[in-house]
Amino acid sequence: MAKGKDPGWWDDFFPDFRPVFAIMSERGTTNGDVKLILKKLNLRPGMKFLDCPCGIGRVSLPLARAGIKVRGVDITSSYLEEFRAKARRSGLKIDLHRMDMRRINFDREFDAAANLWTSFGYFEKESDNLLVLKKMFKALKPGGKFLLHIINRDWVMANFRSSDWYEAGKMKVLEKRGFDFARSVGTATWTFIGPHGTSSHDTSIRLYSYHELIGMFKKVGFVDIEGYGSNKEEPIAISRNYMYIFGTRPK
Predict the structure, then answer these.
(1) Distance between CA 147 and CA 129 in Å, rounded?
(2) What gap in Å lies between CA 175 and CA 131, rounded to an integer?
(3) Paired strand residues for 219
(4) Per-residue pLDDT tens over the stretch 147-180
């Protein structure tokens, strides 16, 4: 599928970012996320789930193994290729599409949908970020449920660090950060140093507090909005780095 009309930082960032996935604990993070998704989205075998963007299938592969009919959308070709290979090795049939999340046009097809791991707020225009929520809402069947899993702006501000070094597999990563208070946008320059050389990328992501997202969910039409600060359903707080926000398309 075609990309969006305007190239953005995400077009060449994510292939280099791929080794950073190694720092995520499958047991502590992915398994907990999958359990929460199955429970809060009321997913049962045979139901249809939209994962947008889906990445390499971190969550969708376990859901497919549980009998959920998954459709994955992502802009990064190499992620989709890796996802397809994993699904093939597991004997799973998963419908994958390369597409900008602003351009999806599904209509009342899915029992549930999700946008995971702070894959929201990429776009300079706030109307484009809102458009992503509108597209996810439209994709749901009446009564369908949506999850937005996103970093907590209030935690970021309380724990702000201007730079960090860390290792991800054989890759060393330097992240230099800034923050635009006028727009609530986190900026970063990422430098990846690995066996095959060094690359650098500039990124910018609109960061949100919980009350802002509640307002956006309501504007789109979601009801029964609730939020948690972890996949163990703990309350959202300044001490919680992520938020899990759920909404329902009215019947």
Answers:
(1) 15
(2) 29
(3) none
(4) 999 999 999 999 999 999 999 989 999 999 999 9
d(CA 192, CA 240): 27
In angstroms, the Cα distances linking 241 to 27, 149, 154, 229 are 18, 11, 8, 7
* Radius of gyration from C-alpha coordinates of the chain: 17
Please report, for residues 37, 113, 144, 145, the alpha-carbon distance to residue 42 in angstroms, rounded to integers and kept in the order given.
8, 11, 9, 8
Are 184 and 176 in contact, with CB atoms under 8 Å apart?
no
User: Which residues neighbour 230 within 8 Å (Cβ) at sequence distance 6 or greater?
Assistant: 32, 240, 242, 244
Q: Which two tokens stand for residue 53?
A: 């963007």
Query: Is it the case that residue 202 has pLDDT exceeding 80?
Result: yes
φ and ψ at residue 232, rounded to 5 degrees? -100, 15
Residue 206 has, within 13 A of its CA and on its CB side, a CA count of 16
| Confidence band of 1 (pLDDT split at 50, 70, 90) | very low
CA angle 185, 190, 194 (to 5 degrees): 160
pLDDT band at 126 (very low <50, low <70, confident <90, very high): very high
